[in-house]
Amino acid sequence: xxxxYPIKLDLNGIKKILPHLxxxxxxxxxEILGAVTARGRITFPRHWDIFNGHFPNKPLVxxxxxxxxxxxxxxxxxxxxxxxxxxxxxFTGVKRVRYTDSVxxxxxxxxxxxxxxxxxxxxxxxxxxxxxGKVNEKIVIEMHASFAALPEEKIK
Length: 156
Prior knowledge:
The mean pLDDT is 95. The protein contains two helices and seven strands; from the N terminus they run βαββαββββ. It has helices at residues 11-17, 63-76; strands at residues 7-9, 29-32, 37-43, 88-99, 108-121, 124-135, 138-150.
């Protein structure tokens, strides 16, 4: 598929690609940088309910939310991979994750995810991706994970 990169996405553009809904749609902007790489952005709102319990006096974004942001960013690339049209990306495993700093209310996380490999098996795609998240140009998370891109009826 010939595309002109980058493909810039606002929240409405992201909603056309990802099946997620609020409160679990984390990206508020992004761009598809090329055939296998995307960048996503989220500003963590200071009033976010999760900060009331994680942690009350020292609010931090939970690590699994950072992982999900990298996964949602990787899923943006599915829009430009011809074999993935109409499929929904899901995690199948996290091979390695490393947190290098905390993410706090008000921080803007810039996530960059790259599809490293994929293979079509039947009507589905299975592969791996890597991602890095940064706040103020400082790496706060690095992750390598596996995914499946599945027809909606196969998601259980």
